[in-house]
Structures are given as C-alpha cells and as structure tokens.
Design brief:
The chain has 325 residues and is α/β, with parallel strands linked by helices. Helices cover 47% and strands 14% of the residues. It folds into three domains: 120 residues, NadA-like (Rossmann fold, 3-Layer(aba) Sandwich), CATH 3.40.50.10800; 77 residues, Rossmann fold, CATH 3.40.50; 78 residues, Rossmann fold (3-Layer(aba) Sandwich). The strands form three sheets. Strands 2-1-3-4 form a four-stranded parallel sheet, with helices on both faces. A four-stranded parallel sheet has the order 6-5-7-8. The chain has a four-stranded parallel sheet with strand order 10-9-11-12. It binds 1,3-dihydroxyacetonephosphate (13P) and iron/sulfur cluster.
Length: 325
C-alpha cells in the first residue's frame, strides 16, 4: 500500500493513539523527515508493527514482510530506509546490492533470527541429506544463503507445497512450522529453538476469556503463535492478511493476537470497529523511533552491509520466493 497522508489527515490518524502534545512534536519531525526524503530520493518502507507516527507519518509503502520485500525489489529510489527489524533491511539489501539500505537502529533484531546460525543449517542438511530447506524470512542473510527457498507467514504453505519432496526442513520458527504441518501432508522437520518472543506469550485462555465477554468476537492471530492459539482463532495469517480478514468480517469486536502497534495502526483504518485489548510489545520493533529515523536520514546511518558472496546465494532463495508469490 502507498501512503503519504496530509499533515491534517495525519493528525486525525494519530489522535486515536497519541496525546496532543506528542502529536505536535511528532508532526514537526515528520515534516523534516519528509523534506529529507525528497531531497535525497529515499524510499521509506514501514512494517505493520511500527508505531503510528513512524508508520503513517513517513512511510512510502506499508505492509507485511512479503509486501515490503516486493516493494524493495521494485524501487528505483537511490536509498532505502527500512523501518522494521534488521533481517527485513538485510533482505532489502540482498535484493538491491547496488543501493544504500539504511536502518534507524542496527540493534533492532529478532528472537527468531537469533535462534539459528548458518552452521546449524549445514548440520541439519547433513542429518537430512537431499531434503529441501525452507527458511522463514525471519533469519539472517547468512542463514538464507544456506537454504533453497524463503517464505513469509503469508506464503509459507504455498512455498512448502511448491516443493516436490515429501519432506521439508522448515526453519527457524517452530510454531509456524507446526501451523504449516497441520495444513500439509508433507513431513515438516522443524527447529525447536526458534520462537518469537512476542507471539509465544499468548495462550488460548486469553482468547477464551475475551470470548466470554464478547460472544461475537472476531479473533485474528499471527501464525508465529503456537497451534492451540491459532486453533482458538477465527483466522491466522500474516500481518497484512490479518488486516484483510478484519476488513472482510462484518463483526464489530476484534481481538488481534499480535504485536501492540498493529491495533494502534488499524484503529485508524477501522474507526467503526472495537479492538478488544490484548497485545505484546516487540522490543526490537520498538527500537525504531521517529527521532532515530530523522537521525538516520540526516547522517545517512546505519548502513546495512552484507558480503557479496552471501548476497549472491541468499538472493536466489528470496527471488525464488517472490516468483512464487
Ligand atoms: P509479517 O510477515 O506477517 O509481517 O510478520 C513479520 C513478523 O516479524 C511478525 O512477528
Ligand atoms: Fe521477531 Fe517476533 Fe519481533 Fe517479529 S515480533 S520481529 S518475529 S521478535
């Protein structure tokens, strides 16, 4: 989705989740950031988990991991600023080795990406010779370089089903692997250490308690949650698929089982819906703040670097995924 609301429109969007004095400060910075973007031909990509000021204020494109990877592959800007976590910015660099790719805080990591190393993948491959390896994009470029094809939560099943083998090694998210295993006849070999520190916090009891209070509740979860949680939900999918499911549902009361900023951002899109509160904050996503975004453009920091041999190998896995859709 393309985005650049007017300052007035933006104020109305931010009022749903921010205090008036915070909005004034943010709007000043947003105007400065927008000016720098134009001067330097920068494309800003904003993940659905960014806070509303970063998400609506300065993004050129917003979306889930797959949507933003596609935008990164298509852009003709000189510089890409990725407002998301490091593995996402690395994927943008892999797809655009000749461009400058910036991230406002290089320490914005991911518990899934940190759970696995290239050596772990090589060991698994030697334990299961000939079995294709699918990696969820939430991993480093060096891990992607060891694998056959990437996927995101929006196309994981499609990617797994596209492979001819009866068995698939699926890394690094153990819960996404469990969710996929329930939908395919293929044998899924997973990596038990890989968990999202945000989505592993949710339990089916969170949902059951809310359903008692709101009998018409529409529960939408991310497939990084364990299967008892997605099993209690009405829909499970990527962050953008969650938004689409809410758009299509006639129900008013919505429970989002995911990162906190997602509900803040969707309140602005669906003013007629009631978002029943439960959420967990991703400390990595929250490292990307508006002042840091401004500093990133002012000082052209922090540049994402990936060695050329890793780019060459990881790119094949990412492009193979993008071709599948
Ligand atoms: P999406 O691909 O659904 O945007 O998910 C990315 C992510 O990190 C979820 O925790
Ligand atoms: Fe990683 Fe979970 Fe944060 Fe997404 S929400 S970036 S999977 S730690």
């Amino acid at each position: 989705m393309i985005i650049e609301p007017t300052i007035q429109g933006l104020r109305a969007q931010l009022e749903r989740s921010m205090m008036p004095h915070e909005i004034d400060l943010s709007l000043e910075l947003i105007e400065k950031i927008r000016k720098l973007k134009k001067e330097m031909n920068v494309t800003v990509l904003g993940h659905n988990y960014m806070t509303p000021d970063v998400f609506y204020g300065v993004s050129d494109f917003i979306g889930d991991s797959l949507g933003l990877a596609r935008k990164a592959a298509e852009t003709d800007a000189d510089i890409i600023l990725f407002n998301g976590v490091h593995f996402m910015a690395e994927t943008a660099k892999v797809l655009n080795p000749e461009k400058k790719v910036l991230i406002a805080d290089p320490d914005a990591g991911c518990s899934l990406a940190e759970s696995i190393t290239p050596e772990d993948v090589r060991n698994l491959k030697s334990q299961h010779p000939g079995v294709p390896v699918v990696t969820y994009v939430n991993c480093s470029a060096a891990v992607k370089a060891e694998t056959d094809i990437c996927c995101t939560s929006s196309n994981a099943l499609k990617v797994v089903e596209s492979l001819e083998s009866d068995s698939v090694i699926f890394l690094p998210d153990a819960y996404l692997a469990k969710n996929i295993a329930q939908q395919t006849t293929k044998k899924i070999i997973s990596w038990e250490k890989g968990k999202c520190m945000v989505h592993e916090q949710f339990t089916p009891r969170d949902i059951q308690a809310a359903r008692r209070q709101y009998p018409d509740l529409f529960v939408v979860s991310h497939p990084e949650c364990d299967t008892p949680v997605t099993g209690e939900s009405d829909f499970a999918g990527s962050t953008s698929q969650m938004e689409d499911a809410i758009r299509q549902s006639p129900r008013k009361n919505i429970m989002l089982i995911t990162e906190c900023s997602m509900a803040d951002n969707l309140r602005a899109v669906f003013p007629e819906k009631n978002f029943v509160s439960t959420c967990q904050t991703c400390p990595h996503m929250k490292k990307i703040t508006l002042p840091k975004v401004y500093e990133a453009l002012l000082n052209l920091q922090f540049e994402v670097e990936v060695p050329q041999d890793i780019i060459d190998r990881a790119r094949k896995s990412v492009e193979r995924m993008i071709a599948i859709g």
